[in-house]
Protein backbone atom coordinates (compact mmCIF):
# COMPACT_ATOMS: atom_id res chain seq x y z
CA UNK A 1 0.00 0.00 0.00
CA UNK A 2 1.28 3.42 -0.81
CA UNK A 3 0.17 6.74 0.60
CA UNK A 4 -0.32 10.03 -1.16
CA UNK A 5 -0.11 13.49 0.29
CA UNK A 6 -3.55 15.05 0.98
CA UNK A 7 -4.85 17.29 -1.81
CA UNK A 8 -3.97 20.94 -1.41
CA UNK A 9 -1.01 20.31 0.90
CA UNK A 10 2.69 20.12 0.20
CA UNK A 11 5.94 18.88 1.66
CA UNK A 12 8.55 21.58 1.94
CA UNK A 13 11.80 19.87 1.14
CA UNK A 14 15.44 20.88 1.59
CA UNK A 15 16.24 23.43 -1.10
CA UNK A 16 12.82 25.03 -0.45
CA UNK A 17 12.81 25.05 3.34
CA UNK A 18 15.85 27.36 3.39
CA UNK A 19 13.73 29.93 1.55
CA UNK A 20 11.02 29.60 4.19
CA UNK A 21 13.56 30.22 6.90
CA UNK A 22 14.79 33.37 5.15
CA UNK A 23 11.23 34.67 4.80
CA UNK A 24 10.42 33.87 8.42
CA UNK A 25 13.63 35.45 9.66
CA UNK A 26 12.98 38.58 7.60
CA UNK A 27 9.49 38.75 9.08
CA UNK A 28 10.83 38.39 12.64
CA UNK A 29 13.39 41.16 12.05
CA UNK A 30 10.81 43.42 10.51
CA UNK A 31 8.40 42.95 13.42
CA UNK A 32 11.18 43.71 15.86
CA UNK A 33 11.77 47.04 14.11
CA UNK A 34 8.05 47.85 14.13
CA UNK A 35 7.76 46.62 17.75
CA UNK A 36 5.27 43.82 17.12
CA UNK A 37 5.62 40.81 19.45
CA UNK A 38 5.01 37.21 18.53
CA UNK A 39 1.91 35.30 19.63
CA UNK A 40 1.37 31.58 19.06
CA UNK A 41 -2.16 30.25 19.30
CA UNK A 42 -3.48 26.67 18.89
CA UNK A 43 -4.05 25.14 15.47
CA UNK A 44 -7.67 24.36 16.41
CA UNK A 45 -10.32 26.39 18.20
CA UNK A 46 -13.97 26.07 19.12
CA UNK A 47 -15.95 26.14 15.86
CA UNK A 48 -18.20 28.86 17.19
CA UNK A 49 -15.24 31.29 17.36
CA UNK A 50 -14.96 31.37 13.58
CA UNK A 51 -18.73 31.41 12.98
CA UNK A 52 -18.86 34.52 15.19
CA UNK A 53 -15.51 36.02 14.28
CA UNK A 54 -15.15 35.44 10.56
CA UNK A 55 -18.91 35.59 9.97
CA UNK A 56 -21.43 32.86 9.25
CA UNK A 57 -22.35 34.24 5.83
CA UNK A 58 -18.78 33.99 4.53
CA UNK A 59 -17.52 31.27 2.18
CA UNK A 60 -14.89 30.39 4.74
CA UNK A 61 -17.45 29.48 7.40
CA UNK A 62 -20.11 28.09 5.09
CA UNK A 63 -17.93 25.93 2.85
CA UNK A 64 -14.31 25.81 3.80
CA UNK A 65 -13.88 24.86 7.43
CA UNK A 66 -12.17 21.69 8.59
CA UNK A 67 -14.62 21.01 11.35
CA UNK A 68 -14.60 17.93 13.55
CA UNK A 69 -15.89 16.52 16.81
CA UNK A 70 -13.36 15.46 19.39
CA UNK A 71 -13.87 12.47 21.65
CA UNK A 72 -15.64 14.68 24.16
CA UNK A 73 -18.19 15.62 21.46
CA UNK A 74 -16.95 19.22 21.22
CA UNK A 75 -17.07 20.88 17.82
CA UNK A 76 -13.60 22.08 16.91
CA UNK A 77 -12.22 23.62 13.72
CA UNK A 78 -8.73 23.80 12.26
CA UNK A 79 -8.14 27.53 12.12
CA UNK A 80 -8.91 29.00 8.68
CA UNK A 81 -7.26 32.31 9.62
CA UNK A 82 -5.41 33.95 12.47
CA UNK A 83 -7.36 37.05 13.48
CA UNK A 84 -10.25 35.46 15.39
CA UNK A 85 -7.85 33.28 17.47
CA UNK A 86 -5.67 36.30 18.30
CA UNK A 87 -8.75 38.25 19.37
CA UNK A 88 -9.97 35.26 21.40
CA UNK A 89 -6.64 35.29 23.21
CA UNK A 90 -6.73 39.10 23.59
CA UNK A 91 -10.08 38.82 25.34
CA UNK A 92 -9.20 35.75 27.44
CA UNK A 93 -5.87 37.18 28.57
CA UNK A 94 -7.39 40.62 29.20
CA UNK A 95 -4.77 42.28 27.04
CA UNK A 96 -6.79 45.50 27.06
CA UNK A 97 -5.42 45.89 30.59
CA UNK A 98 -1.77 45.60 29.53
CA UNK A 99 0.34 48.67 30.19
CA UNK A 100 1.66 49.05 26.65
CA UNK A 101 -1.11 49.98 24.25
CA UNK A 102 -1.93 49.35 21.52
CA UNK A 103 -1.13 45.64 21.81
CA UNK A 104 0.87 44.84 18.67
CA UNK A 105 1.11 41.14 17.82
CA UNK A 106 2.31 38.96 14.96
CA UNK A 107 2.08 35.29 14.08
CA UNK A 108 3.25 32.73 11.56
CA UNK A 109 1.62 29.36 11.18
CA UNK A 110 -0.50 26.96 9.15
CA UNK A 111 -4.12 27.78 8.30
CA UNK A 112 -6.66 25.37 6.79
CA UNK A 113 -9.40 25.97 4.25
CA UNK A 114 -11.26 23.37 2.25
CA UNK A 115 -10.87 25.15 -1.08
CA UNK A 116 -10.55 23.84 -4.62
CA UNK A 117 -6.79 23.50 -4.86
CA UNK A 118 -5.03 25.38 -7.65
CA UNK A 119 -1.81 27.26 -8.10
CA UNK A 120 -1.53 29.59 -5.10
CA UNK A 121 -4.63 28.19 -3.41
CA UNK A 122 -3.92 25.44 -0.92
CA UNK A 123 -5.90 23.60 1.75
CA UNK A 124 -3.07 24.04 4.20
CA UNK A 125 -1.06 27.25 3.82
CA UNK A 126 1.11 29.30 6.12
CA UNK A 127 0.13 32.83 7.01
CA UNK A 128 2.28 35.53 8.42
CA UNK A 129 0.05 38.20 9.94
CA UNK A 130 -0.01 41.10 12.37
CA UNK A 131 -2.77 42.51 14.56
CA UNK A 132 -2.70 45.85 16.39
CA UNK A 133 -5.41 46.12 19.03
CA UNK A 134 -6.49 49.07 21.11
CA UNK A 135 -5.94 52.12 18.94
CA UNK A 136 -8.26 53.83 16.46
CA UNK A 137 -5.51 56.08 15.12
CA UNK A 138 -5.27 56.03 11.31
CA UNK A 139 -1.49 56.13 11.76
CA UNK A 140 -1.72 52.48 12.90
CA UNK A 141 -3.50 51.62 9.65
CA UNK A 142 -0.65 53.20 7.73
CA UNK A 143 1.92 51.42 9.91
CA UNK A 144 0.37 47.99 9.28
CA UNK A 145 0.21 48.59 5.54
CA UNK A 146 3.80 49.85 5.50
CA UNK A 147 4.99 46.74 7.36
CA UNK A 148 3.27 44.48 4.84
CA UNK A 149 4.74 46.33 1.87
CA UNK A 150 8.20 46.36 3.40
CA UNK A 151 8.34 42.60 3.86
CA UNK A 152 7.85 42.07 0.13
CA UNK A 153 10.27 44.81 -0.80
CA UNK A 154 12.96 43.58 1.54
CA UNK A 155 12.79 40.15 -0.03
CA UNK A 156 13.23 41.72 -3.46
CA UNK A 157 9.70 41.54 -4.87
CA UNK A 158 8.79 44.17 -7.44
CA UNK A 159 5.64 45.35 -9.25
CA UNK A 160 3.43 45.44 -6.20
CA UNK A 161 0.06 47.11 -6.28
CA UNK A 162 -1.51 48.30 -3.05
CA UNK A 163 -5.28 48.59 -3.31
CA UNK A 164 -7.23 50.27 -0.52
CA UNK A 165 -10.85 51.01 0.22
CA UNK A 166 -12.96 52.12 3.12
CA UNK A 167 -15.90 50.05 4.27
CA UNK A 168 -16.97 52.85 6.59
CA UNK A 169 -18.09 52.84 10.20
CA UNK A 170 -21.32 51.27 11.49
CA UNK A 171 -23.54 54.14 10.38
CA UNK A 172 -22.04 54.33 6.88
CA UNK A 173 -22.24 50.57 6.48
CA UNK A 174 -25.90 50.52 7.49
CA UNK A 175 -26.73 53.18 4.90
CA UNK A 176 -24.81 51.22 2.27
CA UNK A 177 -26.49 47.98 3.30
CA UNK A 178 -29.94 49.46 2.74
CA UNK A 179 -28.86 50.74 -0.68
CA UNK A 180 -27.54 47.28 -1.62
CA UNK A 181 -30.77 45.60 -0.55
CA UNK A 182 -32.76 48.02 -2.68
CA UNK A 183 -30.41 47.43 -5.61
CA UNK A 184 -30.46 43.62 -5.58
CA UNK A 185 -33.92 42.83 -4.16
CA UNK A 186 -36.01 43.21 -7.33
CA UNK A 187 -33.88 40.65 -9.20
CA UNK A 188 -32.53 38.52 -6.34
CA UNK A 189 -34.10 35.38 -7.84
CA UNK A 190 -31.51 35.59 -10.63
CA UNK A 191 -28.77 35.03 -8.06
CA UNK A 192 -27.43 31.87 -6.44
CA UNK A 193 -29.03 30.43 -3.31
CA UNK A 194 -26.18 31.73 -1.15
CA UNK A 195 -26.69 35.27 -2.38
CA UNK A 196 -30.42 35.04 -1.83
CA UNK A 197 -29.77 34.09 1.77
CA UNK A 198 -27.23 36.90 2.09
CA UNK A 199 -29.56 39.63 0.81
CA UNK A 200 -31.01 40.71 4.11
CA UNK A 201 -28.36 39.28 6.40
CA UNK A 202 -25.26 40.63 4.74
CA UNK A 203 -25.74 42.00 1.21
CA UNK A 204 -22.11 43.17 1.05
CA UNK A 205 -21.13 39.49 0.71
CA UNK A 206 -23.05 39.34 -2.59
CA UNK A 207 -20.38 41.58 -4.10
CA UNK A 208 -17.79 38.96 -3.22
CA UNK A 209 -19.71 36.01 -4.72
CA UNK A 210 -17.66 33.86 -7.07
CA UNK A 211 -20.77 32.37 -8.77
CA UNK A 212 -22.59 35.57 -9.64
CA UNK A 213 -19.64 37.84 -10.22
CA UNK A 214 -20.60 38.52 -13.88
CA UNK A 215 -24.23 39.43 -13.24
CA UNK A 216 -25.01 42.86 -14.69
CA UNK A 217 -26.23 44.18 -11.32
CA UNK A 218 -22.75 43.66 -9.85
CA UNK A 219 -21.06 46.43 -11.81
CA UNK A 220 -23.79 48.96 -11.08
CA UNK A 221 -24.10 48.17 -7.36
CA UNK A 222 -23.92 51.17 -5.02
CA UNK A 223 -20.33 51.81 -3.92
CA UNK A 224 -19.58 52.15 -0.23
CA UNK A 225 -17.49 55.27 -0.81
CA UNK A 226 -20.69 57.14 -1.74
CA UNK A 227 -22.20 56.26 1.63
CA UNK A 228 -19.34 57.19 3.96
CA UNK A 229 -20.33 59.66 6.66
CA UNK A 230 -18.09 62.55 7.67
CA UNK A 231 -16.05 60.63 10.26
CA UNK A 232 -15.36 57.72 7.94
CA UNK A 233 -14.45 60.03 5.07
CA UNK A 234 -12.02 61.93 7.27
CA UNK A 235 -10.50 58.73 8.59
CA UNK A 236 -9.96 57.31 5.11
CA UNK A 237 -8.41 60.57 3.95
CA UNK A 238 -5.93 60.52 6.81
CA UNK A 239 -4.82 56.98 6.06
CA UNK A 240 -4.20 58.04 2.47
CA UNK A 241 -2.25 61.10 3.56
CA UNK A 242 0.03 59.01 5.78
CA UNK A 243 0.66 56.56 2.95
CA UNK A 244 1.45 59.40 0.58
CA UNK A 245 3.86 60.92 3.10
CA UNK A 246 5.63 57.53 3.32
CA UNK A 247 5.74 57.49 -0.49
CA UNK A 248 3.87 54.21 -0.64
CA UNK A 249 1.87 54.28 -3.87
CA UNK A 250 -1.71 53.00 -3.70
CA UNK A 251 -4.92 52.94 -5.68
CA UNK A 252 -8.40 53.33 -4.23
CA UNK A 253 -10.73 50.58 -5.42
CA UNK A 254 -14.32 51.12 -4.22
CA UNK A 255 -15.22 47.52 -5.14
CA UNK A 256 -12.72 45.96 -2.73
CA UNK A 257 -14.84 44.25 -0.03
CA UNK A 258 -12.71 41.35 1.32
CA UNK A 259 -14.04 37.88 2.07
CA UNK A 260 -14.40 38.12 5.84
CA UNK A 261 -17.18 39.87 7.72
CA UNK A 262 -15.29 41.70 10.43
CA UNK A 263 -13.97 44.64 8.44
CA UNK A 264 -14.88 48.30 8.70
CA UNK A 265 -13.17 51.49 7.65
CA UNK A 266 -9.81 50.61 6.06
CA UNK A 267 -9.61 47.48 3.88
CA UNK A 268 -6.61 46.70 1.71
CA UNK A 269 -4.99 44.11 -0.49
CA UNK A 270 -1.53 43.85 -1.94
CA UNK A 271 -1.47 42.39 -5.41
CA UNK A 272 1.04 41.53 -8.08
CA UNK A 273 0.78 44.14 -10.78
CA UNK A 274 1.23 42.19 -13.97
CA UNK A 275 1.71 38.48 -14.29
CA UNK A 276 0.45 36.45 -11.35
CA UNK A 277 0.30 32.69 -11.07
CA UNK A 278 -2.74 31.04 -12.53
CA UNK A 279 -5.77 33.15 -11.76
CA UNK A 280 -4.28 34.59 -8.60
CA UNK A 281 -2.70 37.98 -8.12
CA UNK A 282 -3.59 38.79 -4.49
CA UNK A 283 -0.67 38.34 -2.13
CA UNK A 284 -1.96 39.82 1.13
CA UNK A 285 -5.11 41.22 2.64
CA UNK A 286 -6.19 43.02 5.75
CA UNK A 287 -8.12 45.83 7.30
CA UNK A 288 -9.71 47.35 10.34
CA UNK A 289 -12.12 45.37 12.53
CA UNK A 290 -13.38 47.70 15.23
CA UNK A 291 -16.34 45.55 16.38
CA UNK A 292 -14.62 42.17 16.50
CA UNK A 293 -13.31 42.21 20.07
CA UNK A 294 -16.83 42.97 21.30
CA UNK A 295 -18.33 40.24 19.09
CA UNK A 296 -15.98 37.78 20.76
CA UNK A 297 -16.98 38.87 24.25
CA UNK A 298 -14.46 41.59 25.07
CA UNK A 299 -14.72 45.31 25.69
CA UNK A 300 -15.19 47.77 22.83
CA UNK A 301 -11.74 47.79 21.21
CA UNK A 302 -10.51 48.94 17.81
CA UNK A 303 -8.18 46.70 15.81
CA UNK A 304 -6.43 46.37 12.50
CA UNK A 305 -4.23 43.76 10.88
CA UNK A 306 -3.32 41.86 7.75
CA UNK A 307 -2.12 38.44 6.68
CA UNK A 308 -0.23 37.03 3.75
CA UNK A 309 0.64 33.50 2.78
CA UNK A 310 4.24 32.51 2.49
CA UNK A 311 3.33 30.12 -0.36
CA UNK A 312 2.09 32.99 -2.52
CA UNK A 313 5.02 35.16 -1.54
CA UNK A 314 7.48 32.48 -2.64
CA UNK A 315 5.57 31.86 -5.87
CA UNK A 316 5.69 35.56 -6.65
CA UNK A 317 9.43 35.64 -6.04
CA UNK A 318 9.83 32.67 -8.34
CA UNK A 319 7.75 34.29 -11.11
CA UNK A 320 10.05 37.33 -10.87
CA UNK A 321 13.20 35.21 -10.83
CA UNK A 322 14.31 36.30 -7.36
CA UNK A 323 16.49 33.63 -5.77
CA UNK A 324 16.58 33.89 -1.99
CA UNK A 325 19.31 31.34 -1.37
CA UNK A 326 22.63 33.07 -1.79
CA UNK A 327 25.09 30.99 0.11
CA UNK A 328 25.87 27.38 0.78
CA UNK A 329 25.11 26.41 4.34
CA UNK A 330 28.20 24.28 4.79
CA UNK A 331 31.42 25.80 6.12
CA UNK A 332 33.56 22.70 6.17
CA UNK A 333 33.66 19.17 4.74
CA UNK A 334 35.98 16.66 6.34
CA UNK A 335 37.69 14.15 4.05
CA UNK A 336 39.52 11.23 5.67
CA UNK A 337 42.05 8.78 4.34
CA UNK A 338 42.73 5.59 6.32
CA UNK A 339 41.01 3.85 9.20
CA UNK A 340 42.62 5.80 12.02
CA UNK A 341 41.69 9.11 10.44
CA UNK A 342 38.16 7.87 9.83
CA UNK A 343 37.83 6.86 13.47
CA UNK A 344 39.03 10.28 14.56
CA UNK A 345 36.27 11.96 12.52
CA UNK A 346 33.36 11.85 15.02
CA UNK A 347 35.41 13.58 17.70
CA UNK A 348 36.77 16.19 15.31
CA UNK A 349 33.32 16.93 13.85
CA UNK A 350 31.89 17.25 17.35
CA UNK A 351 34.58 19.78 18.33
CA UNK A 352 34.20 21.87 15.18
CA UNK A 353 30.42 21.98 15.50
CA UNK A 354 30.76 23.01 19.14
CA UNK A 355 33.03 25.82 17.94
CA UNK A 356 30.18 27.01 15.73
CA UNK A 357 31.13 25.74 12.27
CA UNK A 358 28.71 23.89 10.03
CA UNK A 359 30.54 20.70 9.21
CA UNK A 360 29.85 17.36 7.57
CA UNK A 361 31.74 14.25 6.54
CA UNK A 362 31.26 10.98 4.70
CA UNK A 363 29.17 8.20 6.22
CA UNK A 364 28.89 6.07 3.09
CA UNK A 365 32.34 4.49 3.11
CA UNK A 366 33.43 6.46 0.05
CA UNK A 367 36.97 6.61 -1.28
CA UNK A 368 38.91 9.85 -0.91
CA UNK A 369 38.25 11.02 -4.46
CA UNK A 370 34.51 10.50 -4.07
CA UNK A 371 34.61 12.34 -0.73
CA UNK A 372 36.26 15.31 -2.47
CA UNK A 373 33.48 15.22 -5.06
CA UNK A 374 30.85 15.35 -2.32
CA UNK A 375 32.61 18.31 -0.71
CA UNK A 376 32.47 20.12 -4.07
CA UNK A 377 28.84 19.27 -4.66
CA UNK A 378 27.92 20.54 -1.21
CA UNK A 379 29.80 23.75 -1.95
CA UNK A 380 31.76 23.61 1.29
CA UNK A 381 33.93 26.67 1.76
CA UNK A 382 36.78 24.64 3.19
CA UNK A 383 37.80 21.01 2.96
CA UNK A 384 39.78 19.36 5.73
CA UNK A 385 41.91 16.44 4.60
CA UNK A 386 43.01 14.09 7.34
CA UNK A 387 45.17 11.05 6.59
CA UNK A 388 46.54 8.49 9.03
CA UNK A 389 50.05 9.98 8.58
CA UNK A 390 48.99 13.54 9.37
CA UNK A 391 47.00 12.30 12.32
CA UNK A 392 50.04 10.54 13.75
CA UNK A 393 51.81 13.93 13.75
CA UNK A 394 48.76 15.81 15.12
CA UNK A 395 48.34 17.68 11.85
CA UNK A 396 45.61 18.28 9.24
CA UNK A 397 45.34 19.78 5.74
CA UNK A 398 43.01 22.70 5.13
CA UNK A 399 41.99 23.56 1.58
CA UNK A 400 40.28 26.85 0.84
CA UNK A 401 37.92 26.04 -2.01
CA UNK A 402 37.62 29.57 -3.42
CA UNK A 403 41.38 29.81 -4.07
CA UNK A 404 42.45 26.17 -4.12
CA UNK A 405 45.15 27.07 -1.58
CA UNK A 406 46.13 24.28 0.80
CA UNK A 407 47.90 24.45 4.18
CA UNK A 408 49.20 21.85 6.61
CA UNK A 409 48.32 22.88 10.19
CA UNK A 410 48.62 21.64 13.72
CA UNK A 411 45.18 20.41 14.86
CA UNK A 412 45.32 23.08 17.58
CA UNK A 413 45.55 25.84 14.94
CA UNK A 414 42.48 24.66 13.09
CA UNK A 415 39.79 26.77 14.76
CA UNK A 416 41.59 30.08 14.20
CA UNK A 417 42.48 29.20 10.61
CA UNK A 418 38.90 28.23 9.73
CA UNK A 419 37.53 31.38 11.34
CA UNK A 420 39.93 33.52 9.28
CA UNK A 421 39.07 31.63 6.11
CA UNK A 422 35.32 32.11 6.58
CA UNK A 423 35.81 35.76 7.37
CA UNK A 424 37.73 36.20 4.07
CA UNK A 425 34.81 34.48 2.33
CA UNK A 426 32.27 36.84 3.94
CA UNK A 427 34.28 39.90 2.96
CA UNK A 428 34.77 38.70 -0.63
P1 LIG B 1 -7.57 36.54 3.84
O1 LIG B 1 -7.72 37.55 2.75
O2 LIG B 1 -8.59 35.49 3.92
O3 LIG B 1 -7.48 37.36 5.19
O4 LIG B 1 -6.16 35.84 3.71
C1 LIG B 1 -4.99 36.61 3.72
C2 LIG B 1 -3.98 36.03 2.75
O5 LIG B 1 -3.79 34.65 3.02
C3 LIG B 1 -4.39 36.08 1.30
O6 LIG B 1 -4.13 37.33 0.73
C4 LIG B 1 -3.48 35.02 0.72
O7 LIG B 1 -2.15 35.49 0.58
C5 LIG B 1 -3.46 34.00 1.81
N1 LIG B 1 -4.40 32.91 1.54
C6 LIG B 1 -5.71 32.84 1.83
N2 LIG B 1 -6.22 31.67 1.44
C7 LIG B 1 -5.21 30.97 0.89
C8 LIG B 1 -5.08 29.68 0.33
N3 LIG B 1 -6.12 28.85 0.24
N4 LIG B 1 -3.88 29.29 -0.16
C9 LIG B 1 -2.80 30.11 -0.08
N5 LIG B 1 -2.86 31.33 0.47
C10 LIG B 1 -4.04 31.76 0.95
C11 LIG B 1 -7.32 36.80 6.42
O8 LIG B 1 -7.04 35.66 6.61
C12 LIG B 1 -7.40 37.81 7.55
N6 LIG B 1 -7.27 37.09 8.81
C13 LIG B 1 -6.34 38.86 7.38
C14 LIG B 1 -6.39 39.89 8.48
C15 LIG B 1 -5.61 39.94 9.56
N7 LIG B 1 -7.25 40.88 8.56
C16 LIG B 1 -7.03 41.57 9.66
N8 LIG B 1 -6.04 41.00 10.27
TrEMBL record:
Domain Aminoacyl-transfer RNA synthetases class-II family profile: 23-317
GO CC, any one term: cytoplasm
Cited Pfam families: HGTP_anticodon, tRNA-synt_His
Example of a GO biological process term: histidyl-tRNA aminoacylation
Molecular function, one GO term: transferase activity
Residue positions binding L-histidine: 81-83, 113, 127, 131, 258, 262-263
Tree of life domain: Bacteria
Catalytic class of the enzyme: ligase
PROSITE patterns reported for this sequence: AA_TRNA_LIGASE_II
The UniProt record lists the keyword Nuclease: no
EC number: 6.1.1.21
Cited InterPro entries: aa-tRNA-synth_II, aa-tRNA-synth_II/BPL/LPL, Anticodon-bd, Anticodon-bd_dom_sf, His-tRNA-ligase, HisRS-like_core, HisRS/HisZ, HisRS_anticodon
Keywords: Aminoacyl-tRNA synthetase, ATP-binding, Cytoplasm, Ligase, Nucleotide-binding, Protein biosynthesis
Cell compartment(s), UniProt: Cytoplasm
Reactions catalysed, as given in the entry: tRNA(His) + L-histidine + ATP = L-histidyl-tRNA(His) + AMP + diphosphate + H(+)
Principal location listed in the UniProt entry: cytoplasm
Record keyword Transferase present: no
Family: Belongs to the class-II aminoacyl-tRNA synthetase family.
Subunit-level organization: Homodimer.
PANTHER family named in the record: HISTIDINE--TRNA LIGASE, MITOCHONDRIAL-RELATED (PTHR43707:SF1), HISTIDYL-TRNA SYNTHETASE (PTHR43707)
Name used for this protein in its record: Histidine--tRNA ligase
Source organism of this protein record: Alkalicoccus daliensis
Gene: hisS
Amino acid sequence: MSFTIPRGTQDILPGESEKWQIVEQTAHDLCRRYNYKEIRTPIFEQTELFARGVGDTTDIVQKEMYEFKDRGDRSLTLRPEGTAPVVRSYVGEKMHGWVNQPVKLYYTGPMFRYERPQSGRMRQFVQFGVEALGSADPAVDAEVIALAMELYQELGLKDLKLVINSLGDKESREAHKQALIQHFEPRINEFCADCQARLTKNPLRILDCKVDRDHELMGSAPAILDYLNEDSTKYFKQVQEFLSAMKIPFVVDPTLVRGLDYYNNTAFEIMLDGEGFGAITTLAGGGRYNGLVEDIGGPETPGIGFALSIERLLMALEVQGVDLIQDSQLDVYLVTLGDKAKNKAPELLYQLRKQGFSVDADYMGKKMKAQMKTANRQQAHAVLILGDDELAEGKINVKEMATGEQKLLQLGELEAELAALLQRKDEA
